[in-house]
Amino acid sequence: MGLDGFFRLSERGTNLKTELLSGTATFLTMAYIIFVNPGILSAAGVPFAGAVTATAVGAALMCAVMGLVANRPLALASGMGINAVLTFSVIGFQQAHVPWQVGMSVIFAEGLIILLLVATGFREAVMDAIPLNLKRAIGVGIGLFITLIGLNEGGVIRPAPITLVSLGDFSRGYVLVTLAGFFSTAVFMALKVKGDILWGILVAAATAFFLGVTSAPSAFFAAPDFSTFFAPFQRVDGSIALWHALAPGLLFSIFAIMLTDFFDTMGTVVAVGEQAGFVDKDGTVRDIKKILLVDSAAAVTGGLFGASSITTYVESAAGVAEGGRTGLSAVVTGALFALCAFFAPVIQMIGGGHRIPLAQHYCLFVGSGFTTPADVIPPGTGDYFVYPITAGALIIVGSLMMKTVREIAWDDFEEALPAFLTMIGIPLTYNISYGIGFGFITYTGMNIARRKFSQIHPLMYLVSAAFLLSFIYGG
Fold first, then answer.
1. How far is the C-alpha of 428 from the C-alpha of 418, rounded, in Å?
2. Model's pTM, two decimal places?
3. Which of these, 169, 172, 168, 160, lies nearest to 366 by C-alpha position?
4. CA distance 89 to 155
5. Binning pLDDT at 50, 70 and 90, where does residue 305 land?
6. Are the C-beta atoms of 107 and 365 separated by less than 8 Å?
7. Which residue from 168, 299, 300 is spatially nearest to 233, judged by alpha carbons?
8. Crossing angle, helix 413-429 and helix 432-449, to 10 degrees?
9. CA atoms in the 13 A half-sphere facing the CB of 337
10. Separation of alpha carbons 116 and 327, rounded Å
11. Do the beta carbons of residue 327 and residue 335 sit within 8 Å?
């Protein structure tokens, strides 16, 4: 049959050269995830080298599957936002809450649920249950969450007594590295340089090397590390991790991540599909069943490999802008991701954490009752890790998720207040499910008070009640 016949190149007005360029352009715009994802996951105890392999191999595999099964120019990799939620809300910073294998089991479970919803055609019912403005607010809240993490990991802000946060110490080299990465990325984006986030990370890495914040790796190549693979079936406390993920305390996390994963994919597919020409005038996405099946299988694969949830990337639009119209573009992107699995030492130099004494990171108020590190730092807490080389990228990525805020119905108080509480609840509680809970409870309560029972989907009653009980008795 040949490439032309299999991928229908001529039928869609493209050719081999165009698809190769398209796949490369898409890879350049999303290659930053190779550095950022292991850095985020390692903060929760995931082995860095293993996270590199899982991220690279997971993205490579699912890009190839998308190209071969759905034949659309949609690339996949570990999703920004969900990886941060997994690390800082589900698992807990430096494994403070649950083992990372259990966290990956949460991703595995939510992926299976999405796969079931798509396979049974139940996705429309799920989408109809959540008010549109709350859906939009969830994405905005995650963007704020990512930005907060980036500011903290880069040392631009730091914990403080009384005021909770304070301006970081800009005399520290790691803060300068963060600023170099942030501003260079912003300039590259303004100049519309392809791979802007990736280039910004490389500028930050060069700055870190120059300032002595990091050093050159002892080697450039290493064999792939598969230690995170099959994480849900690794044993934790005498039983496989997956059983621990089904504990009542984690069920809300499964639901919250499932919700985010599900709706983020829908928005991405529609946005890229309109640009690529496979969305009809009535909004119907051609081949949507195949696309969603691959995407939901990708979430399962991400949890299975230990890479966090793998999802469809809006950066695929970069390849579409280069003329990509078929799945061959996605296959090319996947091949480039596969090569990255052999460069773990270099990736760790860029995405790994920088150890500093915890007292340096805290702002101590002399004269306010907080005069020594012991007053504000719990005994035995140890050192603090910052991730300055990729922190600027997190801040930028968070800002990119703000655009949907303008679509929220701010003139309608009954819609605006739940959306607002969702948006601020996610970053201020450092937990996406809590933020969603604030929004759900408020929306349901306000509509009940106004006797607008018909506006509330039955699923909203159930979920809002569950969140309320969790807040009351969960402590």
1. 15
2. 0.73
3. 160
4. 20
5. very high
6. no
7. 300
8. 160
9. 34
10. 24
11. no
- Residues 254-293: pLDDT tens digits? 877 887 777 677 767 877 887 788 877 766 788 888 998 9
User: Residue 412 is which amino acid?
Assistant: D
| Nearest Cα residue to 272 out of 228, 225, 324, 235 | 324
Question: Is 222 within 8 Å of 228 (Cβ atoms)?
Answer: no
- Locate 255 and state its tokens: 């639901």
Is it the case that residue 360 has pLDDT exceeding 80? no
d(CA 269, CA 348): 31
Would you kindly state where each structural domain of the chain is located, as residue ranges? 2-400, 409-473
Q: pLDDT per residue over 79-137, tens digit each?
A: 987 898 888 878 875 444 689 999 999 999 999 999 998 888 776 566 567 787 887 88
Q: How far is CA 262 from CA 288, 294, 298, 308, 370, in A?
A: 13, 12, 12, 14, 45
Token digits for 464? 């809002």
* Residues 6 or more apart whose Cβ sits within 8 Å of residue 373: 358, 359, 362, 364
Which two three-digit tokens encode residue 44? 């929760």
